[in-house]
Amino acid sequence: MSLRVFTRALASSPRLSASKFVASRGAFRREFSAECKAIVFEKHGRPLDVLKIHTFPLPDLADDSILVKFLAAPINPADINQVEGVYPLKPPFQTSALATETPLALGGNEGVVEVIDVGKGVQDFKPGDRAIMRHTIFGTWRTKAVATIKDLTKIPYPSSEITAVQAATASVNPTTAYNMLQEFADLKPGDWFIQTGANSGVGRAAIQLGRLWGLKSINVVRNRDDLAELKKDLESLGATKVITDEELADKGFRSVIKEWVGKSPIKLALNCTGGESTTNMARQLSEGGHLVTYGGMARKPVTLPVSLFIFKDITSHGYWLSRWSDAHPDEKEKIVNEIFSLIKAGELKDVPVDKWVWKETMSDEELLEVFKKGVSTYIEGAKGRKQVLVI
User: Fold this and answer.
1) What confidence tens digit (pLDDT) does each residue in 159-184 have?
2) Which of 19, 52, 55, 20 is nearest to 35 (CA)?
3) What are phi and psi of 229, to 5 degrees?
4) Tell me, what DSSP letter sits at residue 150?
5) CA pair distance 353, 166, nearest whole angstrom
6) Are 184 and 290 a contacting pair, CB within 8 Å?
7) pLDDT at 6 > cutoff 70
8) Transmembrane ranges (predicted)?
9) Which of 266, 207, 272, 265 is nearest to 239 (CA)?
10) Is residue 151 within 8 Å of residue 92, measured between CB atoms?
11) Which residues pair with 21 in a beta bridge?
């Protein structure tokens, strides 16, 4: 195909327009702008009210940049809180970068991309490679982006071994569970930990990592109609015991827990809820135990009796993955790669997901409707299922 014909073909494409060609080392290399569709908001508020679709052109490919297309992006609690304006870390409102006069913010922090093209100065990535976001606040609820090597962590396995959805959900929940089990208490095989929200993405990952590391777990869930089925599911992942909030609150049930653990200590408690269940869970800690709070889904404060500090010498911590991962990108990459290896080996099972699929044939209205259905499912309570946008 001649250069003239190739340029004309690119220019006629509705998704990709040619802008220029440059000679490099005796060969022609293309530079182009791609059109991006993204979920954005121009003000904080109720997600179903403020989220909308925005289409804008991406900049031409520079020597050090990488053009990527998104394959999948989860809808995480932090993402929703950012839209609401109640999360400490918020995406910036932009104009020129999004080709808009009205400042807009891009939603989404976690996702997986495939490399479409790279600048001539990029050596570590090539077309066809897949990657996840190296930092937060990238804006992952979109179809395409121009990134740099500082933005991406390459996935070392092909799609036949790690699916797009698996990759898209590996860098937040499993990494959070991994760090909390490793960093706060000196856990040894045979030791116990206890956690609320055990059927969440973090909770399910903690159960499985605990099993792999020889740890025993007490897993607290809310009572529900399908409790027997949920218990069976968590036990199949490696949960030692599964109990309800009501059982945890029952003073008489403490003797049952003591019988389970025997002389082994409960060194660590993982809290994603707050409120009364966290207080009751902290009471189960052994002397010198550690309570780690990484979420507050009940939207209630953590209240701890003075006696736990004085007579049990427990320590209460907070854990925020966003702060840790942005400060330790290389360490996060090592952990994520280990998580990928566990997924590949079948040792770490996927979190249950609902897929919300964007198709090229959909109109903007249809794309927005699909995404809002995913958001609505999350808000109404997805019963431990992750909501994932698949593109």
Assistant:
1) 999 999 999 999 999 999 999 999 99
2) 55
3) -65, -40
4) G
5) 10
6) yes
7) no
8) none
9) 207
10) no
11) 30
Over the stretch 314-357, which tens digit does the pLDDT of each residue have? 999 999 998 998 889 899 999 999 999 999 999 999 888 999 99
Question: Is 319 known to be catalytic?
Answer: no
- Using one digit for the tens of pLDDT, what is the confidence trace for 213-246? 999 999 999 998 889 999 999 999 999 999 999 9
Per annotation, catalytic residue among 87, 157, 319, 378: 87
229 burial (CB, 10 Å; 0-12 / 13-18 / 19+) is exposed
251: which 2 tokens? 């003073």
Tokens representing 289 are 């135990």
pTM of this prediction? 0.86
- Backbone φ and ψ for 38, nearest 5 degrees, come out as -140, 155
Taking a C-beta distance cutoff of 8 angstroms, is the pair 89, 327 a contact?
no
CA distance 58 to 70: 14
The helix (run of H) or strand (run of E) holding residue 53 is strand 52-57
